[in-house]
């Protein structure tokens, strides 16, 4: 493999809420995603999910709190916990989770992205 | 859990080659490490290992090539592959790998750090 430059990879797509795989480690994937506006409430029954903000600001709403993340901040959403990502302005995020995780978890719908799309 | 600010965590330690755990995702750990100078040749027989440069520049030497990484660049070292990290000046790095991985892999020695040390 070659080294991966996060900003170069981010320059290769512009759609929102559609994670792109940039690397794999064992059976885990590193994905980049641009988010803007409201996502859907969902959970991932079988896995935790890590978010690292590369640029911009986002929120993750939970049933009992809201976490605000800026550049260089991260959060691990525990498996099974309902959450809803949100960004007022476009935010660029790295997600790390096992291969095969669907972005909308248990809530399939309009925002469900095709999986394993590389950039 | 609370959100994790990478720069705040990096400000909490100054030793080199001694990874500090900042978060867990399933049975994986996110670690921060400050590196400077030469590490030892080693490999991890059972797992890939992901490096993301947060600040500074580092090299990863392999038997057949050298990869240079700057801020915002990442590389996944495949399992079983001999490698030697190096940084001329201090470099701040995030490592992602399964819980329990020893920093020096198969090459125990002076630079072997105690494991599962949180910051």
Explain what this protein looks like in three dimensions.
2 copies of one chain form a homodimer. Chain A is mainly β and 119 residues long. Chain A has one domain (6-98): Jelly Rolls (Sandwich), CATH 2.60.120. Chain A has one helix at 6-10, and strands spanning 4-5, 20-25, 28-38, 49-55, 58-62, 66-69, 73-77, 83-98. In chain A, strands 2, 3, 4, 5, 6, 7 and 8 form a 7-stranded antiparallel β-sheet that branches. The longest helix of chain A is centred in the N-terminal third of the chain and has 5 residues, at 6-10. Chain A is globular and about 40 Å long. Strand 1 of chain A pairs antiparallel with strand 7 of chain B, so a sheet runs across the interface.
Task: Summarize the structure in short.
Two copies of one chain form a homodimer. With 119 residues, chain A is mainly beta. Chain A is globular and about 40 Å long.
Write the topology of this structure.
Two copies of one chain form a homodimer.
Chain A lengths: L3 E2 H5 L9 E6 L2 E11 L10 E7 L2 E5 L3 E4 L3 E5 L5 E16 L21
Antiparallel strand pairs in A: 2-3, 3-8, 4-7, 4-8, 5-6, 5-8
